Amino acid sequence: MTGVLRRPATHPAPAVGTDAEVTIWEVGPRDGLQNEAGVIPTATKVEFVQRLVAAGLPIVEATSFVHPKWVPQLADAADLLTALAADDALGETARDLPVLVPNERGLDRAIELGCRHVAIFASATETFARRNLNRSFEDQFAMFAPTVTRAREAGMRVRGYLSMCFGDPWEGEVPLRQVVESGVRLLELGCDQLSLGDTIGVGTPGHVRALLAAYADAGVGTDQLALHFHDTYGQALTNTYAALEAGARTFDASAGGLGGCPYAESATGNLATEDLVWMLEGLGVRTGVDLDALITTSAWMAGELGRPSASRVVRARG
Ligand code: HMG
Ligand code: MG
């Protein structure tokens, strides 16, 4: 397309600085594809992961070892990881692609395949714990405790996701204290990082600042946190910037803005990775991501899924 800039002009922001070391945690193959109505061939998923890694994304979350009846879209998790492990270009690093595990059964499946990086996923609210995990709020911690302990004993890295941090479609507003207490419990179980999820995309920048400040008051700094914004209300990028200014450096994003949660109806796609990279490049912050390769990958995936990409950058670049 003519008349379109291939890169933003660089204008650093003093509150961020060009030396900020930002990590993009790509969730497209997991959060993105768990929500697709149609069946996506495993070979397409393999190529998606391969292309994202080749585009320079440092962390690519590959899939979930959840109950296949709960999320049939990711029922091919074992086949996917086996194919990725056989890829010479990925080699040993295939074992470092994070995978979701809700419980010990999921962990066993991940261990069998040699995974070295897992993520558990909790809810800050009672209703979503029941809907997403078939557990009460309290019981979810009992499910995670042995899962995290065993994963750590096996030498794995363990991320803890916390959903509904900015609002819940059934319970409405979620008190900051409830979100902080739930997250601290995940860290105390042994998670090395906590990803705060705006599962239904309702948060706004002041809310982000307030939540990060509440975590800081509880002794949890931004170095232990990641932000996971869905873009339902168009706030994901501005929320990311607010978190960046407040010192956060790890951001979850999904190539092409794919995503959603099958058990939270009002959830739409995640912050699009291309839109995040565009902003960071404009700020002069290095990401290591090849934006052109990423855009080409998302345009290809949109073709595979048969609908236009949700990413504004992908659409602008045609
Ligand atoms: P359950 O039905 O209560 O399971 O589901 P159970 O513990 O009673 O076990 C029943 C049977 O399932 C047993 O088999 C287990 O072995 C089997 P049986 O003895 O009857 O033959 N089973 C499994 N099989 C394969 N893999 C497993 C597994 N676990 C049990 N891991 C469960 C409980 C947690 C498993 C279920 O609720 C589940 O799979 N939930 C996952 C839902 C999900 O994946 N949601 C999307 C991800 S979360 C998200 O997207 C949010 C996030 O992006 C952040 C944000 O946006 O906020 C992370
Ligand atoms: Mg999500």
UniProtKB/TrEMBL annotation:
PROSITE patterns: PYR_CT
Top-rank lineage group of the source organism: Bacteria
Record's keyword terms, sorted: Lyase, Metal-binding
Single GO MF annotation: hydroxymethylglutaryl-CoA lyase activity
Gene3D superfamilies: Aldolase class I
InterPro entries, per the entry: Aldolase_TIM, HMGL, PYR_CT
Domain called Pyruvate carboxyltransferase: residue spans: 22-295
Pfam families: HMGL-like
Top EC class, one word: lyase
The enzyme's E.C. designation: 4.1.3.4
Family: Belongs to the HMG-CoA lyase family.
Identification of the protein by name: Hydroxymethylglutaryl-CoA lyase
Native source organism of the sequence: Nocardioides massiliensis
